[in-house]
Design goal:
Layout lengths: L2 H7 L13 E3 L2 E3 L6 E5 L7 H14 L3 E5 L3 H16 L6 E4 L4 H7 L1 H6 L2 E4 L9 H16 L2 E7 L5 H12 L7 H23 L6 E6 L3 H13 L4 E4 L5 E2 H17 L5 E2 L3 E2 L8 H12 L8 E4 L10 H23 L7 E5 L5 H7 L2 E4 L9 E5 L2 E6 L4 H17 L1 H8 L1
Parallel strand pairs: 3-4, 3-11, 4-5, 5-6, 6-7, 7-8, 8-9, 9-11, 10-12, 13-14, 14-15
Antiparallel strand pairs: 1-2, 15-16, 16-17
Helix pairs in contact: 2-3, 4-6, 7-8, 8-9, 9-10, 12-14, 14-15
């Protein structure tokens, strides 16, 4: 098969983004032509204002563009406006999402300052109310959102699915001429729950451009299937996330596999990586993973990328590993300053390679790269800048010298003079 025919069969680019209705969430646009938005959620007791402010600030600084907080009781609802005010005083204006279950209608009614302070409400049609109370309690939340001009995420979850709807569909399936699997019925129930709830919200008075939908499960293949179904039947903005993804590498791999496929298919307007943190672990890891997923797939750029080889018998020295880690840490530390001073620096590529096999080639492909000596090689390290060998480093100050070269490159290429040169 020649390359031209092969490219027709295996496209090299993602499918076009699904056109969804854009939603303004506290100044951050979700959907439409806006970039995919990264969000996260605190795990503090929201009534503890100090710890919640501290964690929201940490998540926002890590790059979370929306942050969700739990609003589960009176004390939490009363704390929300104070959290918002404290964050503003710190010049952190990240939009806040209130996560409501069971008594959201009561909390939003009893604490109007909370209703006003939040930028979006997240509700679950499976537990917003039961039996005869369901429509009334759902309606109260939607009316409150409409009154204050807030967005609402109607988030269906297979762990708390509307049991009346599920039972009705299961009963109909059992007497159907060609019944489908229980899994298929559950996915249909999830999609119907989301769509029926959004329709009802519009009837009550919430505009279409204030509604975001999600349908979360914890199984990768089921998640992909249910979002394909949902996307094919509506144009609401979609929030993607694998619920209860798990801890460590398992959670990262499962979330990346599911969301990566959906994003490649043009689905999804905002994402969260729902990782279970290690005891005392850094909550912002889920933000970093979400950013790296989007950047690795080429949808957004957040931080300069460091390419580094995995090491082998030719790289018995740990020098390249230490330098790669050092450079990655240096880039992360410098980004808050660089982002303000050097627009576009987040798209820079840096290579730190460990031997002559792929080192020079990878370094040439990067914006700036260094090829360190492998086992038995001459103890010199050529540096490549914009595809050309620029210099050779050696000696104990090699790491510091390379970092200085990176600093100078950033200033020269992304500073004011570099921007003018590029424009010319």
């Amino acid at each position: 098969m020649d390359q031209a025919n092969r490219d027709q069969i295996i496209p090299a680019m993602p499918l076009p983004r699904r056109r969804s209705v854009p939603v303004d969430v506290g100044g951050v646009v979700v959907g439409g032509s806006a970039p995919v938005v990264v969000q996260s959620m605190t795990n503090t007791d929201t009534a503890d204002i100090e710890s919640t402010v501290r964690q929201v600030a940490s998540l926002a600084r890590a790059g979370s563009e929306l942050v969700r907080i739990t609003v589960d009781r009176d004390e939490a609802a009363a704390a929300v406006p104070h959290i918002r005010d404290r964050l503003r005083a710190m010049r952190i204006d990240v939009p806040l999402i209130g996560d409501f279950h069971y008594i959201g209608h009561k909390l939003l009614t009893d604490f109007p300052d909370c209703a006003e302070a939040l930028d979006k409400y997240r509700i679950n049609p499976g537990n917003v109310g039961f039996k005869e109370k369901k429509d009334r309690q759902f309606g109260t939340i939607i009316e409150t959102a409409a009154r204050y001009g807030k967005a609402v995420r109607i988030g269906v979850n297979w762990g708390s699915l509307d049991q009346a709807l599920l039972t009705s569909l299961m009963d109909a399936n059992s007497v159907a001429a060609h019944p489908v699997s229980a899994s298929a019925v559950m996915k249909e129930a999830m999609v119907q729950s989301a769509l029926m709830s959004s329709q009802r919200a519009e009837e009550i008075g919430l505009p279409r451009d204030r509604i975001i939908l999600s349908a979360k499960v914890s199984n990768v293949q089921e998640l992909i299937a249910v979002y394909r179904m949902l996307a094919s039947r509506c144009d609401y903005a979609l929030h993607l996330g694998l619920t209860e993804a798990g801890m460590g590498s398992k959670g990262i791999v499962a979330s990346s596999a599911a969301l990566g496929i959906l994003l490649q298919e043009g689905l999804g307007d905002t994402i969260r990586i729902s990782l279970t943190p290690e005891p005392g672990g850094d909550r912002s890891l889920e933000v970093k993973v979400a950013q790296e997923l989007l950047q690795t797939m080429g949808f957004r750029a957040f931080l300069p990328v460091v390419a580094a080889c995995p090491g082998c018998g030719r790289t018995t020295s740990t020098l390249f590993q230490e330098l790669a880690k050092d450079i990655q840490s240096h880039l992360t530390e410098r980004m808050p300053v660089w982002r303000e001073m050097y627009p576009g620096v987040e798209e820079m590529n840096v290579a730190v390679m460990g031997c002559i096999v792929n080192g020079p080639g990878e370094s040439k492909h990067a914006d700036i790269g260094i090829s360190l000596p492998g086992t038995g090689e001459t103890p010199t390290a050529p540096v490549f800048i914009d595809g050309q060998k620029a210099m050779t480093l050696r000696g104990p100050t090699l790491a510091a010298d390379f970092k200085q070269i990176v600093e100078e490159y950033v200033e020269r290429r992304f500073g004011a003079a570099g921007q003018v040169t590029d424009a010319a």
